[in-house]
Structures are given as structure tokens and as C-alpha cells.
Amino acid sequence: MREFNVALAAPEWILSATILVVLFQDARTRWDNKGGLGRTTWLGLLLATGCAMLQGWFVDTPATAFLGHYGVDGFSIVCKAIFGATALFVMAMADTWLKRVDRGHGEFRLLALMATLGMFFVCSVRDFAGLFVSLELITVSFYCLTAFKRNDERAIEAGIKYVVLGALATAFLLLGIAFIYGATESLWFHKIALTEASDGVGGNAALLEFGLLLTVLGLCFKIAAVPFQVWTPDVYEGAASPVTAFLSMGSKAAGFVLLLKVVRACLGPDGDAGIILATGAWAGLFALIAAATMLYGNLGALWQGNMKRLLGYSSIGHAGYVLMGVLAFNEAGFAAVVYYLMAYLFTVLGVFAVVIIVNGALRSHAITDYAGLGRKSPFLALVLTCGLLSLAGVPPMAGFFGKFLVFQAVVQLGTPVAYTVAFVGAAGVVVSMYYYLCVVKQLYMVEAPEGDTRLDGLVVAKPLKAVLWVCLIGIFVLGFLVQPFVAMAQDAAEALMAAR
Amino acid sequence: MPDLAHSLPAYVPWIIFCPALAGVIQHFFGAKLPRKGDLVVIAGIGASLAMSIALMFQWAALPAGHYFVEAWEWFRLTPGADGIAFDMAIVVDGLTASLLCVVTLVATLVFVFSTGYMKGDPRYERFFFWLSFFAVAMLILTLADNLLMLFIGWELVGLCSYKLIGFWSEDLVNAEAAKKAFIVTRVGDVGMLLGMLVFYHYCGTLSMRGIFAGVAAGAVPATALTWAGIGLFFGAVGKSAQFPLQIWLPDAMAGPTPVSALIHAATMVAAGVYLAARMFPVFTPDALQYIAWTGGITAFLAALVAFTQTDIKKVLAYSTISQLGYMMLGVGVGAPWAGMFHLTTHAMFKACLFLGSGSVIHAMHHAQDLKDMGGLRKKMPVTFYTFVLSTLALAGIPFTSGFLSKDAILIEALGNGHIVLFSLGLFSAFLTAFYMARMVWLCFFGKPRNQEKFDHAHESPLSMTVPLIILAAFAVSFWFTLGAGPEDEFANQFYRTPAYAQEFPKTDAVAHAYWVDGKKPANWHASHGPRWFQIVAMVLGLIGLGVGIALFRSGRRNQNARILPAGVHELAAGKYYMDEMYLDAFVGAANKTADGCRWVDEKLVDGAVNLSGAVGLFIGDASGDADDLVVDGAVNLAADAAKGAGALVGTAQSGRVRNYLAMAIGVTAVSIIVLVFFVIG
């Protein structure tokens, strides 16, 4: 009973404290004086993220707290750094965006912080109960965030769609967890491998596999993968842009972190394919999901005229690429997933930062309205172009390297299934080139209509400008000076494999 | 085996850095510099040229088969215990040294030419920035000793090509052409990437040395090797506009003419041939067959289309496709050295032709159609003579560089028993001479067809004619036979003993022994010795020229005259309808799928949401009654209780939900903290 080790959860404590402070601060301040909330949020996020990263040096990993339900290892630290950075970037976007909104500043920050707290917990959970609670903390926060513009029909519609489909996915997830509990008589992740190893599966194998199937499908909702991908374009379009940015990076990454944990739990103790995953059917299932997701996302994006819908479809496509890393079921694949998420962080948030700035001036997300941005605001156009090319996987940008690692992990398997999914992914890369270039064409090769001065003299707030620079630099560093980040991703994957 | 590798001279990385530095300066200060910074960019590439020439001589001083190589660790993947290192590596052998000189020389001349051609363009400085960027990317590609690094250069040249084709973006057609070029070449790149990954899978590395070692040691199964080779070659198919991906290159002529000369004639499109020649040891006989037939078919089909074109640049574009096919044919029949030789000579004379056409277009105030030209030889003598000399080289007339290299490819095709491909090549050579004669005649001879434009035409300034003269000088065979004996062609010294060829000889049943030590293989029949066909080729070339001139000289045929038989003409003029086929097959399919996605979006999702809404309403109605009784009752009870207590805690009731929430959560949180820290912890 002495294993509570509460100090280990310091990043989460800090975030929880920040949430409370923001809550009280919001209640105590007038509606037109909410600047203090922003400062508190920034401070809390910075402290929590810094604290999470410092644990990498000062905590003897792997360590557990709360009777083993909460763990800190190399994997969780890297993931928390990703989520912390995401939240900080999103907060910078929200600062700009909230200026255009005259109410609800406190609620917005509160909900975003709660979602971040959920993401931090996701990194550290070690059982299915923790998985479910932390995931719901994220999801429920996002339900509210999605419908945050409550006077906007589209936002309300998006919110309802997200809730209804999310509820369905949650039901799947919960049922899956129940089946797994039935098979392993436990909620611990590591009990799955133990049950497999001790031949406990025997009669329960079907039960366990069915449970896993439902769980994986439930998680597909978070990562926006087939069959739970349909909400993505609508919700992306309807939600406020910072929320969309947060969804596309934070929420998706949380889903992948949990998916990796569940997949890891099914692997054998030495990292071999275990009993369940070795059957080949699971690799086939993941390959099927990945291929369908890539095709759906990339083909759906082709004729989109709305920037946020386009990014929604593109985000589905990218979920497919990350899934390719998962389906390798080995350390190289998991490292590729972590690297892809890091690359995606800089890439997609850079793109969204530009989208928010441009939308502030345009009040429109039509791609044709981006015409002439290259002439009027070269820096914004540069960031957007680099971001889109990185998404398309053009070297030497981050996206290319993420794709390279994912592809090499899959091709390394050498099975027909692996080659097939790699081929589909490669074809998707070509298709994606088309729609990303359509946007780039608007930026540089189409002039703004005569007399359209909406994009003239765009002013970018300082924090957002910092985000743009960080993203731009990140895109090139993760595409070229890759060694430290590859090492980081590999350490994370190694820690994940070593987790018990 | 003696150690053949030498460490790299220290200045070699600067061949890349110099234009890169110039590009950076140009990007940030270009508009403020005198002459808008073009001199900086030219100085950058000029320095690269000087270093490339020095490097070539330094390499030539090494014994045959020796090379320079240097690697810097880039990153390390550790799926296993030891890990796999990826290097930034540079290798310099004959292939690299010659391509370096070609790229830097043509680039320097094109840059100088551009100062005249682009004069007065509103985005002059931006143009030079992209040219410099292109040079950097192309040099990375050339020097790379690692497929990953090569691929980065490979994609970057594509990006520059995209930006430069669409440089005059006022016309949306240019933007579309740029996009088409980028996407079609990327179709090929996908094959290349997959091929690379297969090699990585079996050899555990992407360094060329490692791959050659793995292949020589039999690490890659035969079938996989064939497919990986074809995949890799598919990248070259896209980049070098080979059948069936040749459709982008004619459209790419939308870019400014210096760009067409540099990127779409001399260097970038030739990168595919370079890749195929450099990776030659990994191609199995089957893969080589595929390469040879791709090259032969492309050479023939593109030559036919050239007859139907009246745009001066389009004729040259199809000619380029056709000549690239020739080079691939050379690689495919087992003589990469011949392909590389043709690459070198072609780069010079085709760049000269393109710049010459640029000079004409400049003089004609951006008219490109042959129907507006005619009689220009008196107005533009320098352009005319350089153009004719390069045309002779392209037609393969003796004493020109093209004669040597085309001859080399044909003799290899015949010598290795590819009779059909040899005939195809020979016939294409005839067609080439024919359509070039037609073009030269329509452009420079006869009466002016557009008197107004003709009257305004004038010879171009020195900045444009001097590059033409230099390039035309290289169309003479003299330079390429320097120091060569009868059995020992000049190209032999450069291309037949590339890096790693001796350490990891190709061991296929098909004896490609050339690759190993530059000697003719034993089974190369003596019957091919008397080069009877050289006479045939020469005669065919002359007949082609003669027929071309004769047909148009009499004036009975105008520029639109159909030379080909009716059916063939229709087919060739429609570019074999491949654009339409692709449009139907791929774009149509993608369209349908996208429609499907939209349907799922609109019908399925909305349907599901509405259904759940209806269900919710139904349940809501049913539970409404229960709600009134039970829940409201409880709430009212609580409210009454609260009212009673209200007097006590009145100050805490602000009437705002969030305050209540804050209170509730705060109290709970504090309780939890207390519990955790003091009771359990």
C-alpha cells in the first residue's frame, strides 16, 4: 500500500491545479478582462510540459505510481512532450482566435486544458479502466469544444455528429473492454500477454480476440480511421479552427498512443508477435484498415473546395500511413509511428496556424480565396507551402521522413500483405500530391480578384508568429537533421516494448 | 583487389555549397543587389564549374577504376542490436565527374543566356533564385552515393521544375502544366521509392556500395531483384519522360525557354538515365530487357509525334523524349557507358538547340509557332549557324558528337543481339534527321511567313549568342575523341569503369563484361567488327536531311503539311491519345470514388445522426413522464433544502452555473488531495 508514489504524476497534478485556478479565476473576473486566464493557461501548460520532459532526466524509468495503474517510461515522456507542444501551439492559435469571440474565453481554455490532461493520462495509463477514463476525458472535452460556437449552425451540427458517432465508438470500446475482461479476468494491459503465454487463452481465445477487435475499432474513431472516419470532414469544417487543429493532432495522437499500448499488450513478452497477432489475420485486418483509410482520405480530398474539409480528408489519409507503422507489430514500426507523430505535429499545426490567420481576414475557408497569398504575405504562403509539401511527403521535409520510416518498417516485413499495403500507400502519396498542389497553385499562381483587399496587410500576433517559425524550422529539421529525433523515437519505442 | 577508394578532395562539398550560398543571398537580397543579383548567382555556379573541371582532371589522374568517396553519418536506425547507419555520402567516378561538368557548364551558360532572355521580367531576381536552387538540387543528385540522398535531390529538382514551369503564372495553362509535370513524375517516384525499400529490405542499407555488395553476394532473390530494378527504373521513366509517362514533358515547355534548355533537355530529364547507368549492376537481364524496350519504343514513338508539331519548342521536346529513349536503349542493351556518352553529347547540342529556339522566340517577340517564321537565317546568322551545327549533331552526321554517341548505342544494340531494337533505333535516327531538317527549313529558310514579325526580328545580344557559340562548339566530335585510340573511345575512359564495378562485378549469364574492365566480351562476335551499319546510319541520316529539305524547299508543302500517312498522322498528332486515356482511367475513377465518399458523408452520416435523433426523441417522450415525477421531484426537494440553507450560504450563490461547478469540483478535488496525501500516501 506504500506504492502510491504520488509525486510521479507531477505533470498531471500541475495541469489539474491549472484547471482549478482557471476555473476560479474565470469566476472571479469580469467578462471583458480575461487576459489573466491566458497567462495562467500558458504558465500551467509550460510547467506541466517542462515537468514531463524533466522526468526523462530525473526519474528512474520505468516507474509506476498509484499501485501500478500509472506509469512513466521513455515512451510516455516523449508522448507527453508531443501533447504538451500540441497544447501550447493550439493555445497560441486560440489566443488569436479568441479575440474574435466575445464570450466563453474561460470555458474554452478550461476544456482545452481538460483535454490536455486526458492526453497526459493517456500516455501513462496501464490498464483498460485508465484507458477508458482518460480517453473519455479527452472526447467529452472535445464534444463541447466542437460545438463551442453555439450560434453557428455548422458548429452545432458538427458537435451533434461528433457526439452521436463518438457515443457509438465508445460503446464499441466499452464492450470490447468487457470482453477482454471476461477473457483475462483483469483490466491490466499486461495480463493479455500473460494470459496468452500461460495458455490461458485456450477456450477464451475467441472472447479475447473479439474484445480486441471491438477495442481497436473503438480507437479507430479517435484516429479517424475506417470504419469510424466519416465524422472527420464535417467536424473539421464545423468546429472552430483551433479546435480542429487540436483534434487533428492531439486527439488523433492520443488514439495512436493507446492503440500502440493495446497492440504492445498483445505481443509476447520478448516483443515477438505473441499468439494472437502472429496469426496473420490481425496483420491483415490492420492492413485492410490502413489501406482503406489511405484510399478514403486521399480520394475524398481530391475535389474539396474548402480548406478545412480538405485537411479533414487529408487527416484521414495520414491516419492510414501511421497505421502502417502500427501493423508492423515491432519496434521499428512503433518508432516510425512516434516519429510520424512528431513530424505531423510541426507540419499540420503550421498549416492550421496559417489557416487561422487567413480565415481571420477572409471569414471564409474556400481554397479559391487563398489566391494571391504568395504575393501578399510571402511568409505565410511559405509556411503553408512547406507544410502542405511536407504532408505530401516531399523531401527534405518532415513528412517525407515520417513516411520513409513507416514504409521501411512495413517493407521490412517482406510479406505480400506488407507489400500490398505499401503499394496502396505509395499510390496514395501520388494522389495526395494533386490536392496539395491545388492549394499551392492558388497561393502562387493565381492572382487575387481585382479589388479584393481582404488579405492585404495581415497582422500576425507574436505567439502565433513564434508558432509559425517553430513549425517551419521543425519541418526542415525533422526532414533533414533527423538523428536526434530518430533516436528519441527509437528510445520511446524501445521503452514501449520493454513495458510490462 | 587493391583498395580503389580514395578520400574526397576537400573542396568537393563546395561544388554544392557555392550555388547554395548564392541562392540564399539571392533569395534575401536579390532585389536590392545591382543587376538584381544575377551576377551573384552566375558567380556561384561558375565557381562550381571551375571546381568540377578541376575534379574531373584530378579523377582522370587516378588509375583506371579508382574513385573518390567520402561518407558522413546522417542518422542511425536501431531495430536490431547494431543498427543501420544512413550516410550523407559523395562518390566521384567517371559518371559523376562527367555529369558534374555537363550540369555546371550547361547551367552556367543558361544562366548567362537568361540575363538576356529574361531582361525586364518583373520577377527577374526570383527566376535566378530558382535557377540557383535547381543547380543545388541537381548537384546533390549527381554527387549522392546513397539512394536516400539521391532521392532528396531527385524530388528537389522536381520541385524546382514545378516552380519554373509555372514561372509565368499569369497564364493558368502554365500552372496546370507545372502541376501535371510534378504529379506524373511522382508516379514514377513511387516505383522508385518502393524499389529502394526492397533493396533496403534485402541489403539492409541504401548506400550504393552496400546494395552492389548485397546483389553481388546474392542477398536479393532473383524475382525480387528484377522487380526492385524495374521499380527503381520506373523513377527514371517518370523523370526522363519515357513511355508510358512521357506525357508531361511537352506540356512542360510552358516554362521560360532557358528553363526548358537546362531542366527539360540537358540535365534533370537526363537524371533518369544517370540513375539507370549508376545502378546498372542491380538490373537483371529481365529488367534490362524492359529498360531496352522502353527506350526503343519511346525513341520511335516520340520521333513520330515530332512530325506533327508546329510549335518550335514542342518539336524539340519530342526530340528530347526520343533521344532520352535512345540513352535508355543504350543502358538496356547492356552498355550504360554508351547511354551516358549520348547523355553528355546530347546535353550540349540539345541545350544549344533550345537556347537557339529561345533566341528565335526572343527575336520574334514570343511567337513560337513555325507558321510565323521562315527566312530568319539572314536576320540571325549566329543563331542560324549554331542551330544548324547542333541539328547535324542531333541527326548523327559524321564529325559531330552525336554521330559518335548514337553510333555507340546502335553498335551495342546490334552487338548484343537486339536486332529489332537496333532497327527501331536506326529508323528513329532517320526520322530524327527528317523532322529536324523540316524544322530548320521552316524556321530559317524560305520566305518569311509573317512579314511584320520578320521585320522586327533581330540577332540576339552577346549574352545570348556567346553561350550558343560555346555549346555549338561542343557539337563537334573533336572534343570527344581527344586522346582516344581506335579501340579505346574517349567515353571508354569515363564510363566503363565506374565506382564499385570492379569490387562487385556483375555476374549475370548475360555477359556485361564491359562494365567490369572495359574489354569487349568474348561472345561479342567478330562479325560486328566491320561496322557496315555505320555507313547505313550515316546514309540514312543524310537521306533524312535531304528528304526533309527537298519536301519543303519546293514551297509546295507548307508548315502544316502531313508527311506521315494519314492514319499514323492522326495517331501521332493526338499523342497516341494517352492523355485522354489517363484522364478517363485515373481521373475518372478518382472522381467516382470521391463522389462515393461524398455520398457516404451526406447520406450515411446525416442519416445515422437523424436516426439517432429520432430514437432519442422517442425515448425522451417515453421517459418524459418519469422525468416529471421522479427527477423533478428530487430536484425540487433539493432546491427547497437549498432555499432553507440559502440564508446561510447566500454569498456563495452568484447564480452562475460555472461557479457552482467550480465549487463542486474544487471541493471534490481538495478532498481527493487530502485523501491521497494524508490518508493513503
Structural overview:
The complex is a heterodimer of chains A (500) and B (681). Chain A is mainly alpha-helical and 500 residues long. Helix content of chain A is 74%, strand content 1%. Chain A has helices at 10-28, 35-58, 74-98, 105-124, 128-146, 153-184, 190-197, 205-223, 231-238, 241-266, 281-300, 307-326, 331-362, 373-376, 378-392, 398-411, 416-445, 462-480, 483-498; strands at residues 63-65, 70-72. In chain A, strands 1-2 form a two-stranded antiparallel sheet. The radius of gyration of chain A is 22 Å and the shape is globular. The model of chain A has no long low-confidence stretch (mean pLDDT 87). Chain B is built from 26 helices and three strands. Chain B has helices at 12-29, 38-60, 94-117, 124-143, 147-165, 172-203, 208-216, 222-239, 248-251, 257-266, 271-278, 285-307, 312-332, 336-363, 376-379, 381-395, 401-415, 419-444, 451-456, 462-473, 490-495, 514-517, 532-553, 566-573, 578-649, 657-680; strands spanning 5-7, 67-77, 84-92. In chain B, helix 3 packs parallel to helix 14 (336-363) and helix 14 packs antiparallel against helix 20. Chain B starts with a strand and ends with a helix. Mean pLDDT of chain B is 79; it is low at 509-519, 521-528 and 645-657. The interface between A and B is large, with 64 and 61 residues.
